[in-house]
Each structure stands twice: as C-alpha cells, then as structure tokens.
C-alpha cells in the first residue's frame, strides 16, 4: 500500500483529493457551527397598531322624537331704550314740547306768564320737609319782582307742572325750576334750569339770576 502510494501518481492524486474533501468538510462544518452560535436571537418587538386614518364619525345631533330642535337663526336682542340722565344743577334744558300752551301738565297761569315774557319760577317741595319751609320762605320773596311769576307746589301734585318738571327731569326735592322768559330764547323752544337742596334768600336770588343769564357760553375757566 505504501509502495503504491509512493510509486503511483494516480493513487497519490486520489488520496490528496480525498484529504481535500475531508478538510473542506471539516472547515465548512466549523464555520457553519460558529455562525449559528454567534447569531443572537432576534427580539420580537410588539407592533402597535396605528389608529385608522379614516374620517371619524360625528355623533348625530338629531333631536329625539318630540324634542324641539334649537333654532339656528340670529337671536334678536331686546330693545333697550336710551335713559335720560338727570340734568346737572344749573344746566339749561329745552322743554321737549317746544311750546308752553295751557293744558294737562301746564296751568293756564304759567302759560300766560311765559307768553308775557316773564320768567317762571317753580318750587317743588314736600310736606314737613326740614329744608323745604326755609326755601319756600326765600322763594316767596321773589313775588315782589314784577318780571317773575312764582309758583309753589307740593311733590304730590307735581303732575300739574309735568310739562316743565319732566322736561328738566326733576328727581328730588326741594327743587327750584327757573323757566327763561320767551324773549331770551331767541325764538327757540322754551328752556329751563333746575337746582336742588337748601337755599337761603341770597342763594335763591342767585339761582334765578343764573337761570336768566344770557351771555357767552364759551368763557374760559381762567380770567382774561
């Protein structure tokens, strides 16, 4: 056998081929075994299902049978009238009627005095008022002035002069109303002023003078 291996080239080639096959098999087996041992098991990651991308269904707002569906029209706000602020003390206010003609809310004596270019002074008081009697006594002194027509009325009967008192918005007593004479209105509607509270004789006279004042209304607040 040894002599055949040494002397016969064919046997030698066959032997070498067999050895090559065995070596190749061993190498392949080792490589495959090492590859399998070095491969780490793949962790399985749980897959989270994404929410569907379809259009979400909006819950139906159809009212139940018998229920009244809310109206979708434009709501109309309640009408709000314009409130008239009380006239400040000493301010001149036009009487809304535009005329002082005798009738309900205006005694004939007042209309006649205004027609004769007299200033009309109306004092509104209440019974047993602490300040009212003193103010009334001061107003009564004005009767001596022939250019004035003086009237005094209790708050309970103020409706007799409502054409004037409502025009200046009398809202408390004692109230002193001075209607400017017709000659000072420049042909416009009658105007009047109202002032409130206790007044002595001099203060009453000053209130009348202020009501009858006719001069520039754009005077500066500082003396020239």
Q: End-to-end distance, in Å?
A: 152 Å
Q: Which band does the percent of strand residues land in?
A: 5-15%
Helix count, DSSP H or I runs of 4 or more residues: 6
CATH architecture term of the domain at 92-212: 3-Layer(aba) Sandwich
Instruction: Name the CATH class of the domain at 92-212.
Output: Alpha Beta
Shape: rod-shaped
* Gyration radius, in Å: 56 Å
Amount of helix: 25-40%
- Give, in order, the helices and strands: HHEHEHEHEEH
Q: How many beta-strand runs?
A: 5
Give the spatial strand order of the biggest sheet: 1-5-4-2-3
Q: Report the biggest beta sheet as strand number plus sense, adding barrel if it closes.
A: 5 strands, mixed
If you average the pLDDT, what whole number results? 73
* Helix-strand category: alpha+beta
Low-confidence runs = 37-90, 217-224
Annotated CATH homologous superfamily of the domain at 92-212: Glutaredoxin
Find the CATH topology of the domain at 92-212: Glutaredoxin
């Amino acid at each position: 056998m040894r002599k055949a291996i040494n002397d016969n080239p064919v046997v030698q080639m066959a032997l070498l081929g067999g050895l090559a096959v065995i070596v190749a098999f061993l190498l392949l087996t080792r490589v495959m075994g090492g590859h399998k041992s070095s491969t780490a098991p793949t962790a399985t990651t749980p897959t989270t299902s994404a929410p569907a991308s379809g259009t979400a269904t909006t819950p139906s707002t159809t009212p139940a049978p018998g229920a009244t569906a809310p109206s979708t029209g434009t709501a109309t706000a309640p009408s709000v009238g314009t409130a008239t602020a009380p006239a400040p003390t000493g301010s001149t206010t036009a009487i809304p009627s535009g005329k002082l003609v005798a009738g309900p809310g205006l005694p004939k004596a007042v209309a006649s005095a205004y027609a004769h270019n007299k200033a009309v002074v109306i004092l509104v008081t209440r019974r047993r008022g602490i300040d009212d009697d003193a103010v009334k006594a001061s107003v009564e002194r004005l009767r001596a002035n022939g250019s004035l027509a003086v009237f005094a009325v209790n708050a309970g009967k103020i409706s007799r002069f409502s054409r004037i008192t409502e025009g200046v918005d009398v809202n408390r007593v004692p109230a002193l109303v001075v209607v400017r004479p017709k000659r000072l209105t420049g042909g416009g509607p009658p105007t009047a002023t109202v002032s409130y509270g206790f007044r002595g004789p001099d203060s009453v006279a000053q209130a009348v003078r202020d009501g009858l004042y006719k001069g520039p209304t754009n005077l500066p607040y500082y003396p020239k």
